[in-house]
Design a protein that fits this description.
- There is one protein chain.
- With 73 residues, the chain is mainly alpha-helical.
- The chain is built from three helices and no strands.
Length: 73
């Protein structure tokens, strides 16, 4: 069992883009936007195909999806 809490995925995502990419790497919001769009598509897919709401996506759910479907696009 992972020590990762259920909402850690969203925290990790936000910290990566807002704190690391924007603050440390100094990328522009225009660089971040396509990533944001991609994750919105992932969240929509997770809900529509697997019944997993965005608020409950965590690393364990992504691992299950990866192993069940063979790969995650």
């Amino acid at each position: 069992m992972s020590a990762t809490k259920s909402n850690d995925f969203q925290d990790l995502l936000q910290n990566f883009f807002l704190k690391w990419m924007m603050s440390q790497k100094k990328v522009s919001p225009f660089t971040i936007q396509p990533y944001k769009d991609t994750f919105r598509i992932l969240f929509k897919y997770m809900y529509e195909e697997h019944g997993v709401k965005a608020s409950s996506i965590n690393m364990e759910e992504l691992k299950k999806l990866y192993y069940r479907d063979g790969q995650l696009y």
